[in-house]
Amino acid sequence: MSARDTVWISAAEVARRIDAGEPLTLLDVRWSLAEPDGRVAYEQGHLPGAVYVSLEDELSDHTVEGRGRHPLPSGSALQTSARRWGMRTGVPVVVYDDWNRAGSARAWWVLTAAGIDDVRILDGGLAAWTAAGGVLESGPVDPRPGEVTVAHDDLYAGARRTVTADTLLDPGRLVIDARAPERFRGDVEPVDPVAGHIPGAVNLPSISLLAGDGTLLADAVLSRAFEDADDVAVYCGSGVTAAVTVAGLAAAGVDAALFPGSWSEWSSDPARPVARGSD
Questions:
Q1: Each residue of 21-44: pLDDT tens digit?
Q2: Catalytic residues
Q3: d(C-alpha 58, C-alpha 53), whole Å
Q4: N-term to C-term CA, the chain
Q5: Is the pLDDT of residue 279 over 70?
Q6: Quick one: which of 119, 97, 112 has its CA closest to 8?
Q7: 206 near 100, Cβ under 8 Å?
Q8: pTM for this predicted structure
Q9: What does the alpha-carbon distance between residue 140 and residue 45 come to, in Å, rounded to a whole number?
Q10: How confident is the model over 42-61, as pLDDT tens digits?
Q11: Average pLDDT of the segment spanning 248-273
């Protein structure tokens, strides 16, 4: 199995597994900055049997202080949620969304950081499913409770690589800012109180890893872009869209680290330096 196939899955393959009656857990993780609650859209139409997952309430823990706008949940809280979603040990999981792979990449990162295997992102999201002729169901889904067990309670030190504000700028590390160019430059900052970027970072918007139809770029393109990458860390506004870049890099065989608190954590400390411009 290629590196790409361990992280991403095509709509055709999902359809094949459903048609064959293979066990599969489908999680709908619709979220965007403009519409953080995707439940209404989910209930209007989702993949057959898919369960809605709230990024804000179940893939984040807003009671945690000092970790940015979307702190990671604990493994124990995630396990409770995952069992409610019907996740079972040994049953593959497919996560999907309808906005730039942000919600699904967050779910993939959180679940795999907790030590849950065989979690994949639907390449192209909901649009790829419908374009391939996939049917949609409406209304909520109430699955039979699962019994999946997570291996890590502290996801900041879990099965996926992370960096902190203190270790992010270690020598020799390539730091990628996955936000839009205008936010990186500091022209605008619609969410956080300080505009700009972390000094030394390079700008690679997460959406630049996606083709026009929302699918991940071809392996050859990703491999050429990151063939010299060794130690890579990625951040965004609050650790959500950066997960798209981490998942894209994983398809190219690069095990990138995530700075979970991202710019929202970095910029909350006035003692930390801020850079502006395109550098």
A1: 999 999 999 999 999 999 999 999
A2: 236
A3: 7
A4: 39
A5: no
A6: 119
A7: yes
A8: 0.98
A9: 9
A10: 999 999 999 999 999 999 99
A11: 96
Q: Which three-class secondary structure string do you get for the chain?
A: CCCHHHCEECHHHHHHHHHCCCCCEEEECCCCCCCCCCHHHHHHCECCCCEECCHHHHCCCCCCCCCCCCCCCCHHHHHHHHHHCCCCCCCCEEEECCCCCHHHHHHHHHHHHCCCCCEEEECCHHHHHHHCCCCCECCCCCCCCCCCCCCCCCHHHCCCCECCCCCCCCCCCEEEECCCHHHHHCCCCCCCCCCCECCCCEECCHHHHECCCCCECCHHHHHHHCCCCCCEEEECCCCCCHHHHHHHHHHCCCCCEECCCHHHHHCCCCCCCCECCCC
| For residue 212, pLDDT beyond 90 | yes
For 174, phi and psi rounded to 5 degrees?
A: -90, 120
Q: At what angle do helices 102-113 and 242-251 cross, to 10 degrees?
A: 70
Question: Amino acid identity of 92?
Answer: P
Tens-digit pLDDT profile for residues 103-146: 999 999 999 999 999 999 999 999 999 999 999 999 999 999 99
Please list the residues that pair with 16 across neighbouring strands.
none
Q: What is the number of other CB atoms lying within 10 angstroms of the CB of residue 222?
A: 21
**For 154-169, what is the mean pLDDT?**
98
Contacting residues for 80 by C-beta, under 8 A, at least 6 apart: none
